[in-house]
Amino acid sequence: MSKVVIIGAGGVGNVVTQKCASHPEVFEEILLASRTLTKCEKIAKQVKENYNKDIHIQQIDAENVPALVSLLKDFKPTIVINVALPYQDLCIMDACLEAGVHYLDTANYEPKDNPKFEYKYQWAYQEKYAQAGLMAILGCGFDPGVTNAFCAYAQKHLFDEITQIDILDCNAGDHGHPFATNFNPEINIREITQTVRHWQNGKWVETPPVIEENCIHFTFNYPEVGPRESYLLYHEEMESLVKHIKGLKKIRFWMTFSDTYLTHLRVLKNVGLTRIDEVEFEGCKIVPLKFLKALLPDPASLGTNYKGKTVIGCIFQGFKDGQKIKKYIYNICDHAKAYQEVKAQAVSYTTGVPAMAGAMMVLKEIWKGKGVFNIEELDPDPFLKTIAENGLPWEVQDFSGSLPE
Ligand code: NDP
């Protein structure tokens, strides 16, 4: 009897819940818990319509560890899928330890007052999880997540040594809003406005944020969607890949942005609306970025008229049998198709499917271990097969194009 608790009823939580419900042979009972119960009710209704399955729902503040421990002890799940916000990661990891439950998330912990994406806080749980005989699986969305699995796959099957990885994340979709973010606006804007870093010859190299004029970008010709401007960005999976991919000399992450998006972001930053410190407003203290989040479209609502596709993948350079080779592994996901299936846009879809698949790997005891794991440390084959069977097919190609030096 496998029970799962899903925490977070946002865009990603919706996809994870529906995808788990589509596999009753693995996820026999589902409890969806989140801060706002009405959002859980809406997803539960959708699950009933699509899969004729009843799920449990419960209101929870995941930062209240005793309340979460008691929820877990009552329901007795085998695993928690955390798709709330990165701020809650450590509280949920603590609660899982106390209740003896495996843990999986899609984004690394981030302190509220310091938008630095670092694994150090969660890697510090290694001993505690190992001693408890539990698994904590970190970053099991698309990027991080599937991109890490692509790296593990390339290392296992395609290369003797990988020297360079370029991760390319393209959203060539159009949601019809002048400005909106595809996942939680607060987390998204914190990620995009920070100083950029990539890793080269054993050290991190800093370059200007994507909203600065002298930021680094180039045009990449993406499969099916064509040329798009792609900007160098820091992304959390690079920190673990640098540790786990043998022989790696360089790793970079690129993301596409439209001019309109960057212009909006520049203006919002210039007027102070992306600030994360408290400011005094008419006798109250407000955090401008949280206020901005309240004004922007809910990412879960974007799917309705979203057209176009996402293309996310990795380009690898390295050696096989003494020959220099280049390979490109990627997935293409269609916003409208995702909406048709689970009423979600492709960014939520490409995150939710791998989170479900990762939990399935644990429940089927395909991924086994004690301690804290990043995805590239686990067998990529069954995981990549499962995401392909569940709406995220992927391709491997020889790469003959060019990338900036
Ligand atoms: P949303 O903002 O749509 O959803 C987050 C949900 O978490 C909301 O329902 C929110 O509740 C709930 N929540 C927030 N705080 C708490 C709390 N203290 N206790 C309980 N529930 C809480 O975000 P997304 O669904 O877009 O993203 C979810 C996660 O997925 C994020 O961590 C994001 O960084 C990650 N992500 C990962 C990607 C990847 O590829 N690896 C890509 C995209 C996203 P309420 O409704 O009350 O606000």
From TrEMBL:
InterPro entries to which the protein is assigned, alphabetical: NAD(P)-bd_dom_sf (IPR036291), Sacchrp_dh-like_C (IPR032095), Sacchrp_dh_NADP-bd (IPR005097)
Domain Saccharopine dehydrogenase-like C-terminal: 141-391
Transmembrane segments: none
Name recorded for this polypeptide: Carboxynorspermidine dehydrogenase
Domain Saccharopine dehydrogenase NADP binding: 4-137
Pfam family, one: Sacchrp_dh_NADP
